[in-house]
Design goal:
The protein is mostly beta strands. The chain has an eight-stranded antiparallel barrel.
């Protein structure tokens, strides 16, 4: 009887240790830089619109681990974007530049597959992305699809994962803001690094 009780206790302890060591949910931060501009460079009638800088991307992430090397990751990423307009008309002596920064938030929800469970684990991810936009940039699409690939490295209790992401956004909603020639880039590439605990 005592032997059976000890055996059951040791089995339960081993099972609980395994469950907690796998941690089904992890939280962390993700940051990086856009490789592509937010807006397409356009020129029309002496006016040129373009992105003056790519800025940065930063936010929080949560991941739910599933069986068979699968996981679901959701991010909330803040990305400031810039739209600069240059007006030039030598006939009227006009040469002026206007520049505005806008706040955008991106919310990708991605299915992730890890190819192995080693110290350096390659993975791929895919899923929908959603975007919240500030006033002057509100004509940008709010929906897109994201693909990504990276490598996750374990460092003690941390997991560090550099990756490249490609997002294809839908069509712009309409020209609200500067002029009718403003247009966002539908294809967006970012380099990001995630750190989870």
């Amino acid at each position: 009887m005592l032997a059976d009780l000890l055996k059951l206790s040791s089995t339960m302890f081993a099972f609980s240790t395994l469950c907690f060591s796998q941690r089904p949910a992890s939280f962390g931060i993700k940051a990086g830089v856009p490789i592509t501009d937010a807006f397409t460079t356009r020129s029309l009638f002496g006016e040129t619109d373009y992105s003056a800088s790519k800025r940065y991307v930063a936010g929080a992430m949560v991941e739910l681990r599933l069986p068979f090397h699968l996981a679901i990751e959701a991010d909330g990423l803040y990305r400031p974007v810039n739209l600069t307009t240059h007006l030039a008309d030598s006939r009227f002596g006009i040469d002026r530049t206007f520049s505005d920064d806008f706040k955008t938030w991106e919310f990708p929800v991605l299915a992730k597959y890890r190819f192995a469970s080693t110290a350096f684990t390659p993975y791929v991810e895919a899923g929908p992305s959603f975007r919240a936009l500030e006033g002057g940039a509100s004509f940008q699409s709010r929906y897109g699809a994201t693909l990504g690939a990276g490598v996750e490295a374990r460092l003690s209790v941390l997991r560090i994962a550099p990756e490249f992401r490609f997002t294809h956004w839908g069509n712009d909603i309409g020209a609200v803001g500067y002029t009718l020639i403003d247009s966002s880039k539908r294809n967006q590439v970012e380099f990001l690094v995630g750190i989870t605990f």
